[in-house]
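Entry 14. Ran structure prediction on the chain below.
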Amino acid sequence: MTRIREDFAEILKLVRPSARVLDVGCGEGELLELLTREKQVDGQGLELGPENVAACVARGLSVVQGDGDRDLDHFPTRAFDYAILSKTLQQMREPRHVLNELLRIADQAVVSVPNFGHWRVRWALLSQGRMPETGALPEPWWSTPNIHLCTLRDFVDLCDQLGLRIDGCAALSDGRPAREIDPRAPIENWRAETALFLLSRKAEPAPPAAMPQQNLFGEVELPKPEAPVPKRRGTRKA
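Output, structure tokens:
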């Protein structure tokens, strides 16, 4: 039996059947194929590498060759139920723009990021004085595609700045079952090796009620009631 990647298994739980899904940076299409088979989603991929695009097409998947940093702008607003970005945000040149675009074109976004605040990362820096290589960050510094690493606290702060709501979060570690966490809890910034977030836009607040105005003498001026509209009288017939 083929072992499903743990972040894929969590995404499979989140996505509802027959949903419209965009997988940004879909690679060779493993996640899209899984969602299509298990949840019968209407899926589309966006992938930069031509070899990966060819692999997706060979799987019978719908995929567009494009750059997630620039080409999300071309998708119509609310075209999807879910936009997925799995372990890719840290490789984007404009993470803020990408997150904004994900939640423009989809009702919810599923985003997973490696946590640079994990205790193994901290220990490697403290004890060795070198850039860490861990299960979530396996490449050496000179060949890694990661250019915008962050901690859980950093990511939560960015969501707050962008007006995004965190609807759910799970911590992922190689070889261990995923567990639901509160990403704002300080301990999770140490414990979670990778975190998977379910995001949506915060509802726009209702406009405040009009406040009574004061005149120059400090007296409250209440809004004047509108004058009643006079009823129109019917004309007599001769």
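The longest strand covers residues 164-173. Will compare against last week's run tomorrow.
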